[in-house]
Every structure is written in structure tokens, then in C-alpha cells.
Amino acid sequence: MNLPSDRHRCRLAVFDLDGTLKAVASPYSHVHRALGVEAAAHEIYARYRRGELTYDQWGQEEIGLWRGLALADLRAILGTIPYWPGAVRFVGRLRKAGVAVAVVSAGFDVHVQTCAAELGADLAVYNRLGVQDGRLSGAFFTQVDGRNKGALVREIQAQFRTTRQETLVAGDTVYDVPMFPEAAVSLAVATAEPTVAQAADLHLSDGNWDRAWNLIADFRPGWLPD
């Protein structure tokens, strides 16, 4: 068996967060439900899908529905979102083996920063919410959208001096698919979108990350660190 050289083993893992490591696909929808503004949010998103709003405009209008919400209340709502089984253990195993971990999420800072700290991630890239006097101002600042995740993976590879051959990526929606060609191993997680599963090398269909290590090791023997 020809095993990968150390130079071509996994040295970087880039994860989407929501629906990938966490078991709720959208923190936005999760908060909308908790606040009772689902109907208004659905109409805003429908306008975005019809091309009537840009991504930035969609964000401004949806987050505008939360204007005045206390940060403490937002954190309490987000704290009810669980991780997929084994997700924290899988990331911890990578980190223990010396693999750099990055989270690239179109979610927002209040949620992503907390999760990145819990996971021990080396880097997190996300969107930001405006805050004034401990409450949401309704402003929304975009760093990650539905188009730029592939480019962000390349920037992270440059930052960590790694290559495509050394990179693992994981995601669950069509917005994550641009990351897949940038990695030696791409993993679709618990997605209901067949095009995402078809675009990835592997599909963790049940979201159980305790299966992921062996799944990757069988697909690419010797590539994961010991």
C-alpha cells in the first residue's frame, strides 16, 4: 500500500458550522422561531431567492427583525442548539494530532465565537451583528456569503502554509460546495440536498461524527494523522 507522505497528510481541517458540526441547519431560523418572527423572515428570504435582495440586504432585513434584543437573551436562545454526536470529539482528535482547525460560517459572531472556543478552533470566519449598549442594533456586517467559501479556504491554506492535498473540508449546503474542490477530502454532513452529497467525496448521512474518522481513513488510508 502506498501511503501519503507526511507532506501530503492532513494538516488543516475547515468546517462549516451550522448543520455540519451543529445539528440545527440555520441559527437565523432558530432565533426567528424563538422570537416569533418566522413569517416575516420567510418573506425576506423569498425575496432574496427571487433576486430582489442582495445577500447584504437580506442580512440587514432579517437581523433588523431582532433589533433591540439583548445579547444575553440571544446567547440563551443559541445555547439550546446541540452539536451533532461526536462532533466535538472528532475536532478534538484532529487538534490533538496537530491538525489546524478553522470554522468558516455564514452564521454570526455571537454564535460562531462561542462554538469556536468550545471546539478549540485555531481560526473562525463569520458575519457580525451590530451591538449597542448590550442590545442588537439591527446592523449586519458580511464576511461570509453564499459565494466566497472556496476563496476563503484558499486564504486559510495560505495563512497556515498548507495545500489542497493536506486539507479536509466539511459542509452541508450548496453554499459549502465551493469548498469541496479546494480539499483532498470533502465531507457532506447530514444534508437533505442530494447535489451536496454528490459533490463531496464522502457523505456522513446520519451526522454521527463518531463514524467520520474511520470513514475518511477507509477512503484515504494513511492520510489522517496517527
In short:
The protein has 226 residues and is an alpha/beta fold.
Structure description:
It contains nine helices and seven strands, in the order βαααααβαββαββαβα. It is α/β, with parallel strands linked by helices and 226 residues long. It has two domains: 6-23 and 83-219, Rossmann fold (3-Layer(aba) Sandwich); 30-78, no CATH class. It has a seven-stranded mixed β-sheet, sandwiched between helices. The protein is globular and about 50 Å long. 39% of the residues are buried.
CATH level 1 class label of the largest domain: Alpha Beta
Rg, rounded, reads 18 Å
Strand order of the largest sheet: 4-3-2-1-5-6-7
Mean pLDDT: 94
User: Topology as H/E string?
Assistant: EHHHHHEHEEHEEHEH
CATH topology of the largest domain: Rossmann fold
Tally of extended strands? 7
- Show unreliable segments: 1-6
Distance between the termini: 17 Å
Q: Helical amount among residues, as a percent range?
A: 25-40%
Large-scale geometry: globular
How many individual domains? 2
Which CATH-level-2 architecture of the largest domain?
3-Layer(aba) Sandwich
Major sheet attributes: 7 strands, mixed
Percent in strands: 15-25%
Count of helical stretches: 9
